Amino acid sequence: MPSKRVRYPFQVLALCLSAWGLAWAGPPAEKDKAPDAASIRRGKYLATIGVCEACHTPPAVPAVPGGGDPDRERLFRMDPDWVRYLDPQRQLAGGVPFILRLSGTTHGLVVTPNLTPDVETGLGSWTEDEIVEVLRTARRKDGRVLFTFPPHSFYNHMALEDARSLARYLKSLPPIRNPIQPRTLPFEPQPMVADGPARAPQGRTRERATYLMGALVGCRECHSHHENGTLVEFAGGSPSDPFQGSFRLGPDLPLRQLEKGFAAFPYPGFAVLYGSNLTVLGHGGALERVPTERIVRAIRQGIDVREDEYGRPRPIAHVMMWQFYKDMADVDALALADYLKTLTPVANPVGVRLKLFGTDWEAAFQQTYGEPPTPEDRAAFGMP
Ligand code: HEC
Ligand code: HEC
């Protein structure tokens, strides 16, 4: 059985505050009922801070390399704000491929499904209950089980009302026809057991922060690493663990049908970026005195809690998806920041945030996986 550990795999490129606390109205199976506007609004909010579009909306770059405007393509690869290049014409219409390296000889390919209510190529024939089920258990209505990596891998903890709101929001989208290439996987994934509460905790509370990070947003997955098999939470990435807290950047994103790639985030050259150590913001940490508002600013505006050497605000890298978090409600952002301030500092020897490899794909690969690419890897990632 191949390892299913896969790093937070945001690919490509990637609202509105909902009326929190509005009760979820009504029993299940209301597919004939008038849509519940408040529930849809909440679903839209959850979809935004849950960054669904980062994976389920393809970028507007040509399907064939060199087939479109070269300036736009160059900008897409170099602009830190990659979310701006997501295609508004294909919002949540899927089609973003993820190459999975399960081992040096085992690879898979999963492509994000079309979440719009198109009957033939999307979720048009799915009921709300069926969408709730696939979100919380990974089991599709045809019985097939999704391959889950973060954040899908923890949606089983999602509150029923939140899953239902997401389903309603998806059903309210304009249908877009977009046929999706089938996945290839060398094994059958297992379903998850849904164990989320009926309703999500609310307010600027520790319960709310724990819920959001346990059931919807991947703060922990991106900001932690393993040491001797144990998860060191929020201590940032580790160069010896490619599976959490480090991210592959590169020019050869697997965004297009004719091109496969190793990188998960766009960048002109190959690089590996490490998630920051957030425990330094906790009690007794080096940044304990950073005001909560600064942490909220980092989350919602992508500005580092520290100034640069000239005292200017320093933008953080495009891996942290503040473009979606910018719409996070005050109470949620504050609940998360409060939580970070309670962490116990953990020393993480990672000195550099970003390791640059220029055009050296093999070195970046080795850094990420701890071993050089095999011939099978080369074939899977389309490298000579
Ligand atoms: C990191 C990328 C990623 C993010 C973020 C993400 N998804 Fe997915 N999602 C996938 C992939 C990949 C699949 C397909 C897996 C497979 O085919 O085995 C999928 C499958 C699904 C499916 C199943 C549809 C079907 O036809 O099988 C639904 C529904 C879904 N996602 C909803 C969401 C929602 C709602 C969000 C945000 C709250 C979200 N996803 C966030 C990658 C992502
Ligand atoms: C997809 C991965 C990813 C996710 C999800 C993510 N982060 Fe980050 N975050 C990063 C990376 C990488 C950095 C460092 C960027 C840099 O150094 O330029 C960062 C930086 C930060 C910073 C700034 C740290 C500093 O030193 O100023 C804060 C605060 C933060 N993240 C909190 C969060 C919280 C809270 C969440 C959940 C809502 C979250 N992050 C989700 C990857 C992620």
Keywords:
globular; 10 strands; disordered N terminus; single chain; 4-stranded mixed sheet; 27% helix; alpha+beta; two-stranded antiparallel sheet; binds heme C; 384 residues
Produce the secondary structure layout.
Blueprint: H1 37-49, H2 52-56, H3 70-78, E1 97-101, E2 107-111, H4 128-137, H5 160-171, H6 206-215, H7 219-222, E3 225-227, E4 230-232, E5 246-250, E6 265-266, E7 270-274, H8 292-301, E8 303-307, E9 313-315, H9 322-325, H10 330-340, E10 354-358, H11 361-369, H12 375-380
Bound molecules: heme C (HEC) (2 copies).
Please describe what this structure looks like:
There is one protein chain. By secondary structure, this protein is of the alpha+beta class. Helix content is 27%, strand content 11%. The longest helix is centred in the first third of the chain and has 13 residues, at 37-49. The model is unreliable at 1-32 (pLDDT under 50). It has a 4-stranded mixed beta sheet. Strands 1-2 form a two-stranded antiparallel ribbon. It has a domain at 1-200. The protein has helices spanning 37-49, 52-56, 70-78, 128-137, 160-171, 206-215, 219-222, 292-301, 322-325, 330-340, 361-369, 375-380; strands at residues 97-101, 107-111, 225-227, 230-232, 246-250, 265-266, 270-274, 303-307, 313-315, 354-358. Bound molecules: heme C (2 copies). One heme C is lined by residues 9-10, 47, 50-52, 54-56, 98, 110, 112-113, 115, 131, 134-135, 140, 146-147, 151-152, 166, 183.
